[in-house]
Write a structure and sequence with these properties.
Blueprint lengths: L1 H8 L1 H17 L11 H16 L3 H11 L8 H7 L13 H12 L19 H4 L10
Length: 141
């Protein structure tokens, strides 16, 4: 009865939001210094953040940013692709870079290459309409 009453008044949602905020604040303990963020970790975290934000995992992305010491402002995608030597096609720019990397190693990683670049067709295996769905609802290949 108490839960229903709080819900009807709109207070339950506010209480839940406040608890989440306090949990995130507790996780982001500023008194404990973070180790310096290496270049590799910065790039990996940015790939993960782009993936999380694309899939609308906003709370998870905010915790990653807070815990890792990642800059609040995301790195520019073109900069990230250049740092990782990724060659993108027009279709690839609509999905996170991480999908292309995974696709490359699932479908094209066996081919010999003298460059450390992803093939331009690497993201064609992941149509846009398929990526927004939960993994259980995606077309399996």
């Amino acid at each position: 009865v108490l839960k229903d009453t709080l819900e009807k008044r709109g207070a339950l949602g506010q209480i839940k939001a406040r608890i989440r905020a306090e949990v995130f604040n507790a996780l982001d303990d500023q008194s404990e210094p973070r180790p310096p963020l290496s270049h590799e970790n910065l790039l990996i975290n940015e790939l993960i953040r782009e993936y999380l934000e694309y899939n609308k995992y906003k709370y998870t992305a905010s915790v990653l940013t807070a815990e890792s010491g990642q800059p609040e402002v995301p790195l520019d995608r073109q900069f990230l692709a250049k740092e990782l030597n990724i060659v993108e096609d027009a279709n690839g720019k609509s999905v996170p870079l991480l999908y292309g990397i995974v696709s490359h190693f699932l479908h094209g990683g066996k081919e010999e290459s003298t460059q450390n670049t992803l093939p331009k067709v690497s993201l064609l295996n992941y149509p846009k309409q398929n990526l927004g769905k939960p993994p259980t609802e995606r077309n399996q290949k």
